[in-house]
Amino acid sequence: MISGEDNVNFFWYAKYCVRLWRIYPQRYRAFFQLINERKCRIFLEIGTNNGIRARQMIETARIHHSLTSVQYWGVDLFEDLTPDLLSAEYAIRPPSCMTVTRMLEKTGAFTKLFKGNSKEMLLRIRKEIGQVDFIFIDGGHSIETIQSDWDNCQHMMSKNTLVIFDDYFVQPSDPVKNVGCNQLVDRLDQSEYAVSFLPIIDEFTKPWGILRTQMVAVHRT
Ligand SMILES: C[S@@+](CC[C@H](N)C(=O)[O-])C[C@H]1O[C@@H](n2cnc3c(N)ncnc32)[C@H](O)[C@@H]1O
């Protein structure tokens, strides 16, 4: 638990309650509950995409913290997402970096986006970012990229940092058998890291069958 300022901001708390009620996909409900319960203030998201999750993280932090103290750091390929990477990373296409930068500037919080491949970018920026409260690993979905993201993220973790991996595929069948965080999560050393599966599994109908996905939370023991 990160220590927050004492007062709860009821405007942002009400907005948060409405978000929990309406959110889609539903697995994000537990995601925002954790941010609120742990009073997270400094965020790193790998895979910012359109910035909507970023804005929602900042708004959730405002329940417990003043706007000037909230920080959001984001990494995404943005315009550098080539058709080859789109398929190798099992990704979805983001808007331009400038569009997302402008949208996040309107939150009034400190926000900084880095355009590039997280495999090289995180190594360059992890000193600048320092330790964060909350890391969302949701960029490239290839096993190699997730492993590299995790390796870099460990340098930005304190004993209180919570890391959320998206896309742990439940009973994965062919197209997603070799992507996602399953292999990494299944091999984590549980004497060093506490691993818990967030409660909601989303299901999506795909041309090849049903895709079932959930999030995984990890912190140091
Ligand atoms: C599933 S989307 C992220 C969704 C967002 N986190 C959310 O919750 O709404 C994945 C994003 O990761 C980005 N991405 C994919 N591979 C990447 C890589 N190797 N480095 C950086 N970003 C990457 C894509 O451009 C895409 O915007």
Written overview of the protein:
There is one protein chain. The chain is of the alpha/beta class. The chain has one domain: Rossmann fold (3-Layer(aba) Sandwich), CATH 3.40.50.150. It is 35% helix and 26% strand. The chain has eight helices and eight strands; from the N terminus they run ααβαβααβαβαβαβββ. The protein has helices at 10-22, 28-37, 52-61, 83-88, 97-105, 118-129, 143-153, 182-187, and strands spanning 42-46, 71-76, 110-115, 132-137, 157-169, 193-197, 202-206, 209-220. Strands 1, 2, 3, 4, 5, 6, 7 and 8 form an eight-stranded mixed β-sheet that branches. Helix 1 packs antiparallel against helix 2 and helix 6 (118-129) packs parallel to helix 7. It starts with 9 loop residues before the first helix and ends with a strand. The structure holds S-adenosylmethionine. Residues 45, 47, 49, 52-53, 75-77, 81, 89, 91-92, 94, 117-119, 138-140, 145 line the site of S-adenosylmethionine (SAM).
In short:
This protein has 221 residues and is α/β, with parallel strands linked by helices. It contains 8 helices and 8 strands; from the N terminus they run H-H-E-H-E-H-H-E-H-E-H-E-H-E-E-E.
